[in-house]
Amino acid sequence: MKKAIFITVRNGSTRLPGKAQLLIEGVSTIEYLIDRMKYSKKADCIILCTTENTSDDNLIEIAKQKNIFYFRGSEEDKLERWRGAAEKFKIGFFCTADGDDTFCEPLLIDLAFEQFEKKNSDFIKDGGLITGAFTYGISVTALKKVCEIKDSEETEMMWVYFTDTGLFKVENLENVPEKYYRNDIRMTLDYEEDLSFFREVAQRGNKSKVYLDLEEIIDIIDKEPKLKEINFFRQQQWADNQKKKTTLKLKGE
Q1: pTM of the predicted model, to two decimals?
Q2: How many CB atoms are closer than 10 A to CB 154?
Q3: Does the residue 252 lie in any domain?
């Protein structure tokens, strides 16, 4: 069964326009994320999942330049976009790496792949990890079931279809180093302050290492606690915005 990383990204941001093309360490944020995902040892492929809008054409060009696969689908319905990608590339299980999560950690993604292989999980969530370090692991069987039962095309905040319906085997990510459980660090790109945070941390990374792993990121922040103050004040605003957009609409209800 093929395992993939789905990098979910589009150019429709209103809070931070064009954020996928903003620069960190001389490369765009989306290229930075793609390069990180290539350090997964267990993914069979990486697929950039974007929309059919012409405004996202440049993202396809980046995928081609980075020698990864790509899929274009619905703008609003993220679940259908994933389903289409899974069917096209014959994927059985995938981990999501949101385009916003510039420091998403490939080690954690590989742990999710291992967990699925051992336990046949339907849906794996972070369980309290640093925001942006890991998103979800999802079986395509469960994804297809959700696409059958949902009654909405607005699925940007999609996790409730897995966690709140009682239909799926939902688990927290397991075997994670304890130091990765933090509620005082924010690693997702929605505001100007987030971009400043990523740039400051990346600039301090050890350039001789293959990539800036999560352990080093935490060490950098703990040595300079003021770094997390750059953007963490945005966390509640971000969480409130996500909650406002989260809905569960099922057919027949």
Answers
A1: 0.96
A2: 13
A3: no
